[in-house]
Amino acid sequence: RxxxxxxxxxxxxxxxxxxxxxxxxxxxxxxxxxxTVVCFIKEDxxxxxxxxxxxxxxxxxxxxxxLTAGQTAEGNATLIERHGLTMPLLDDSTLKVxxxxxxxxxxxxxxxxxxxxxxxxxxxxxxxxxxGFFDKHLSDTQIDWDDYPEWRPGCGSLTQDPVIADRLxxxxxxxxxxxRKIEIAPSxxxxxFMFDQGFSDGLPVVPPTPERVIRMLEGTSxxxxxxxATMPPNMAPATIEKIAVNAVLAGCRPEYLPVxxxxxxxxxxxxxxxxGVFATTMGASPVMIINGPIRERIGxxxxxxxxxxxxxxxxxxxxxxxxxxxxxxxxxxxxxxxxTLGSPMKFTMCFGEWEERSSWDPLHVERGFDKNDSVxxxxxxxxxxxxxxxxxxxxxPQLAGSFGLSMESAHxxxxxxxxxxxxxxxxxxxxxxxRDGYTKADIRRRIQEVTTVPLKDLVAxxxxxxxxxxxxAASMTDDMxxxxxxxxxxxxxxxxxxxxxxxxxxxxxxxxxxxxxxxSIPVSRKIEV
Length: 529
Fold this sequence. Notes:
Layout: E1 18-21, E2 27-30, E3 35-41, H1 46-60, E4 65-70, H2 73-83, E5 89-91, H3 96-100, E6 105-106, E7 108-113, E8 118-123, E9 125-126, H4 127-137, E10 151-152, E11 155-156, H5 162-171, H6 190-197, H7 210-217, E12 227-231, E13 236-239, H8 240-250, H9 257-267, H10 274-279, E14 285-291, H11 294-297, H12 312-327, E15 350-352, H13 363-366, E16 375-389, H14 396-407, E17 421-425, H15 427-435, H16 440-451, E18 453-454, H17 470-474, H18 478-481, E19 484-485, E20 494-498, E21 506-512, E22 523-526
Parallel strand pairs: 3-4, 4-5, 14-15, 17-20
Antiparallel strand pairs: 1-2, 3-7, 6-11, 7-8, 9-10, 12-13, 14-16, 16-21, 16-22, 17-21, 18-19
Helix pairs in contact: 5-7, 7-8, 8-9, 8-12, 9-12, 14-15, 14-16
């Protein structure tokens, strides 16, 4: 996936062409001769030092030209002085040629013809193989092979260093990166620069260096330039690469990237109405709930402090989505994001359901997925988590009634038929409910039951001007005014998950923004892992 073109290490492969300078500044190119021996070495490798006299002898042969590339300029100077070399050592301190040749072990010796086709190769040191190579291809050299050990292992190429390898991949000709690179002056503070450029949500961010973005892309098999979504409000293309950049900014690990991608796919649907969610003065924001095996794989917190700080996965996945909305979609406070007060959820709100803690169907199964699917579901919530404190109820009807009475305050006690709600049930409350055989459906029915009031109780009055306009109520019949109306338009608007510590009878609720086609509809997406 998105790897620079490498030759296959078999005889007959065409080797990459290159031109490198020696220590005097003279350029040497490959391929140019009838036959060329291309060598890769580094100064701190004992086996490379062992074979330096052999490479010097190869350089004196009339059978082929020898081009020896050292992986550091300082190392080349040391090798020349240490071994009294007369042959030129080429400077591959950028490691781009070593990378193009996919050098894993040094010393590496490759013989090629005038077309650059590989004829033979040596890796490390095996006296029998090296003597056979010289007898076959460099027969005019005089070497006493008894002076050499039978075998010595090679050393790891500098290109195998993870940090260096990521840089080389980022700089390669067909690097998966296409984003514009910004050069920052050495005297500038990179973190202050990113604040000044508006890349941050107000908290420090991780600089998205090419190396870090390359590592982040290892978290997915999808092409870096694949278009995931067109992101409002600017209707900008959100590619895998751009999402990876924001995942780096947020502090994600590569294994979180598939979750971030799926969440962005979900929020950019027409059903979720991303533009409306971020533009409303009501201050809505995505709440992400994750189900399935990926929870354990990425270390997502579903237990103590599941809705709070302390978990890298919970904190950074939600933050990456919000940063992407800001940096790709252009939703910034004071611009298209017009929230009156804002909310801590504008930074991040992502957690997992503790599926194993109850006998109930988890959220993603309720929404039509297989239990073994990894799924992210996004909700547009305007407030929460609001604590529901009930340490006294001993029966399921009592406890579910407490849930309903607490959730009745969403937006306003007189606001009925409004948004969706998320109920996060803590384990101790789960035990009380399950002891009486309550299911999620039973909880929903009980919430609707205890929040049902006649329409006349929702009319604005001297106590509060919120509610149904009195003039409108005056035009209603008694039957209309006595019509019972529950808090939520449907039981389907109440979403229930389990999370939290085993200790403490404290559940919580999130209050939704407007529901349905005129607002936002919850969206689930399967996570590609």
